[in-house]
Amino acid sequence: MKLTEMLGQYEELLDKKDQLAKDTKDNNAAIDKLKAEIAEMMIDEDIPSQGYGDYIYSLQDKVKYSKRGEAYLQERGLDFFEVLREQGLGELIKETVNAGSLQSAMKEIAEENDGELPPELDEVVSSYEMTDIARRKSTNKALKRAKGE
Question: Per-residue confidence of the chain (149 residues) as pLDDT tens digits?
């Protein structure tokens, strides 16, 4: 197989990945919309449950909880995590580090230290080298450079 054919397949797979992500988002939105319409119709027609195929669909009352926005909390001088701890819910709090943020920070630190992490970080952060493929839209300038013109 030629390199250009492989790059073509790679391009197709990346495009398919993007399309699948969009399709999933669109599908989830359509599901949510239809669920709301079905629930409304079941309520309007006083049908608490309905069989269809191998399934029974029924109305359920649910309460969903989510953290209030930062602006709301700041306005009231509240610290979300502190309130959880005070209410005995500290075990819900999980310290996490975003992988992308860690990557950026470690790259910057390594660049400042001749490609090496300080020993303290090297003890807790592993690294490995790999060869990756960069993908960017080509411009006339980039294309000429790639062709060696």
Answer: 899 999 999 999 999 999 999 999 999 999 999 999 999 999 999 999 999 999 999 999 888 899 999 999 999 999 999 999 999 999 999 999 999 999 999 999 999 999 999 999 999 999 988 888 777 787 766 666 666 66
Phi/psi-derived region of residue 95, left when phi > 0, alpha when psi is between -120 and 50, beta in every other case: beta
Q: pTM for this structure?
A: 0.64
Identify the CA nearest to 34 among candidates 26, 21, 20, 23: 26
HSE, side-chain direction, 13 A CA sphere, residue 20: 6
The answer to whether the beta carbons of residues 98 and 105 sit under 8 Å apart is no
Place of tokens 């990756």: 132
Lookup: tokens for 94: 């999980």
Distance CA(85)–CA(73), nearest Å, equals: 16
Integer Cα distance of 97 and 99 in angstroms? 6
SS3 call for 70: helix
